[in-house]
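PROTEIN DESIGN WORKSHEET
SECTION A - STRUCTURE
LENGTH: 209
TOKENS:
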């Protein structure tokens, strides 16, 4: 599959062949779904907690005698039917972590990249860099490359260019910057366009190819 390569002005400079192993892989929707659910589950803290009847204050004394009052028998003010009593069948701290083999995660990424490329969602850039860290400059560059679409920008490594682009992207709600090594299924599916400098494409090829 051939793809055009643009400069930061949005002008086509050349065409390159996309790696077939990554951008023409067999699409496995179930695997993509599993990877997405795993990532969302692993992001949960699991710190929610409620108190059972053994943890709430009060109780210790029977509210009233067992018989003769005409009221229902009660044994403790900690019981669940009392205001301020304990709770049952409510959440307690737990881990939501799900495991998934590395090869399956990589296969899910290849499927997502294939779908993105088939939908013309991959924008190749010869070199992604800004002269200075300005939100306006980043917004203008993305507007030339992807128009009004949301964009996930992937760079190969942390360097001066990465720092400049990162500071320019922070205040843009429809854009996000990632390193190639941190590419994930949620961000791939969550943004309309994937902006790839050629160096990042090489990094992805080494990682997934």
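SECTION B - SEQUENCE
RESIDUE ASSIGNMENT:
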């Amino acid at each position: 599959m051939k793809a055009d390569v643009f400069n930061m002005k949005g002008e086509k400079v050349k065409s390159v062949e996309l790696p077939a192993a990554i951008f023409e892989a067999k699409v496995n929707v179930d695997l993509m779904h599993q990877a997405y659910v795993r990532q969302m589950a692993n992001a949960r803290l699991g710190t929610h907690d409620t108190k059972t009847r053994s943890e709430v204050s009060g109780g210790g004394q029977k509210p009233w005698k067992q018989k003769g009052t005409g009221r229902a028998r009660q044994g403790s003010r900690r019981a669940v039917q009392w205001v301020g009593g304990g709770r049952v069948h409510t959440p307690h701290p737990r881990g939501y972590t799900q495991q998934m083999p590395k090869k399956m995660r990589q296969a899910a990424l290849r499927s997502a990249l294939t779908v993105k490329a088939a939908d013309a969602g991959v924008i190749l850039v010869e070199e992604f860099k800004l002269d200075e860290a300005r939100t306006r400059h980043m917004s203008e560059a993305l507007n030339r490359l992807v128009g009004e679409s949301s964009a996930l920008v992937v760079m190969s490594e942390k360097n001066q260019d990465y720092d400049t682009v990162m500071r320019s992207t922070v205040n843009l709600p429809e854009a996000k910057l990632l390193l190639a090594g941190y590419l994930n299924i949620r961000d791939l599916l969550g943004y309309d366009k994937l902006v790839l400098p050629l160096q990042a494409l090489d990094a992805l090829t080494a990682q997934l190819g």
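SECTION C - NOTES
The chain has a mean pLDDT of 95.
The longest strand covers residues 12-17.
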